[in-house]
Specification:
Uridine Diphospho-n-acetylenolpyruvylglucosamine Reductase, domain 3, 3 domains, single chain, Uridine Diphospho-n-acetylenolpyruvylglucosamine Reductase, domain 2, 5-stranded antiparallel beta sheet, Uridine Diphospho-n-acetylenolpyruvylglucosamine Reductase, domain 1, 8 helices, binds flavin-adenine dinucleotide, alpha+beta, 4-stranded mixed beta sheet
Length: 343
């Protein structure tokens, strides 16, 4: 069940080469518990991965790498308006979206085609096209890496914010998310706040103006805009959209009148990181095996043969240049593994 010296390049979508000293794919919570309690591994670092679509693996990973493989979707509660479902961490996210829509349950359509596993979705509060996981989230179960005890986390305890959660920034690496509960609608309630989506939706024939229609539009939009990691290795958006104060935004606007910013609660502004990268001439720029994609300024790609160190040094040059031109800090979105001690 537990393998030694496992190559990880086919287990991360940036296709970065590295090995896991030990590797396990528990297919039940009981197996996961046994692995976490196994005295051979308790003194070693334990690292959780999902489908590897948001990882920057920069070195071999010592200790045990655990990839949850528990499957299953069940209904916990149902009324005429809602359904509460429980999904195991090893399910594929997009297959879940497809399945729920086929049952007539809505709420996940805007999150169509996001790669990865269900267990990873709360980790960074996945989001796209005006919807975030938090909007449909009810609660989750997670197992403590330290003592293999299961704890239930409410929405509030998960501390969700933009591409962030308690699991990502408060106690990273300390929990394995095992079950995720989502509350979905049985009555149509679409989110069309994203202008491009709303425009395309209104152009659909009346019978296609449904949650299925939204899924199809988003799948088509994403396929046309984002490189498929199966063809060109990438981890989606490599940088987060930086959030700045209104004073900072106004001062940037004076120097760069066409800067793109979206008002946020409490007077802050979210800047379009892709715009900053494009202005700084990084869009389409390639150095060796690494580059920023020619159509998607925010997507860093491995053209083949890049190492984690290559990606890190290229990303740092992009970050330094954005800091120099705009005095704005670009934060990396993918998670760095192995995790630095204390990180
Ligand atoms: C082409 C492309 C497009 C993308 N588009 C989007 C997008 O629109 N919106 C968006 O939000 N993201 C997007 N992403 C990023 C990625 O799809 C999500 O972050 C996804 O949730 C990662 O899932 P994963 O299973 O691959 O996790 P991994 O990349 O394997 O892991 C990511 C992090 O989650 C942790 N983790 C994984 N599983 C668990 C678990 N069960 N318990 C605890 N921690 C866990 C890992 O430790 C790691 O820190 C995109 C990626 C790609 C490649």
């Amino acid at each position: 069940m537990i393998q030694e010296n496992v190559e990880l390049s086919d287990k991360n979508t940036l296709r970065l080469p590295a090995t896991a000293q030990w590797f396990a794919q528990p297919s039940s919570e009981q197996q996961l518990q046994e692995i976490l309690n196994d005295p051979r591994f308790t003194p070693l670092p334990r690292t959780v991965i999902g489908d590897g679509s948001n990882l920057l693996i920069h070195e071999n990973i010592d200790g045990l790498v655990i990839k949850p493989a528990m499957r299953g979707i069940s209904v916990i509660e149902e009324s005429s308006e809602h359904v509460l479902i429980e999904v195991m961490a090893g399910e594929n996210w997009d297959q879940l979206v497809d399945y729920t829509l086929a049952q007539g349950w809505q709420g996940l359509e805007n999150l169509s085609l996001i790669p990865g596993s269900v267990g990873a979705a709360p980790f960074q509060n996945i989001g796209a096209y005006g919807v975030e996981l938090v909007d449909v989230f009810e609660s989750l179960d997670a197992m403590s890496v330290a003592d293999a005890q299961v704890r239930n986390f409410s929405k509030q305890q998960c501390g969700f914010s933009y591409r962030d959660s308690f699991f990502k920034s408060v106690q990273p690496g300390q929990w394995v998310i095992t079950r995720v509960r989502l509350r979905l609608n049985k009555i149509e309630k679409l989110t069309l706040s994203y202008a491009d989506l709303a425009e395309r939706f209104s152009a659909l024939a009346a019978e296609n103006q449904s949650a299925h229609g939204v899924r199809e539009l988003i799948c088509a939009l994403r396929r046309s805009k984002l490189p498929d990691p199966a063809e060109l290795a990438n981890a989606g958006s490599f940088f987060k959209n930086p959030v700045v104060s209104s004073e900072k935004f106004e001062s940037l606007q004076r120097s760069f009148p066409s800067i793109v910013g979206y008002p946020q609660p409490h007077g802050a502004y979210k800047l379009a990181a892709g715009w900053l990268i494009e202005q700084a001439q990084w869009k389409g720029k390639r150095e060796g095996s690494v580059g920023m994609h020619a159509q998607q300024a925010l997507v860093l790609v491995n053209y083949g043969g890049a190492t984690g160190a290559d990606v890190m040094s290229f990303a740092k040059r992009v970050q330094d240049s954005i800091a120099e031109i705009f005095s704005v800090t670009l934060e990396r979105e993918p998670v760095l593994l192995p995790r630095a001690l204390g990180d």
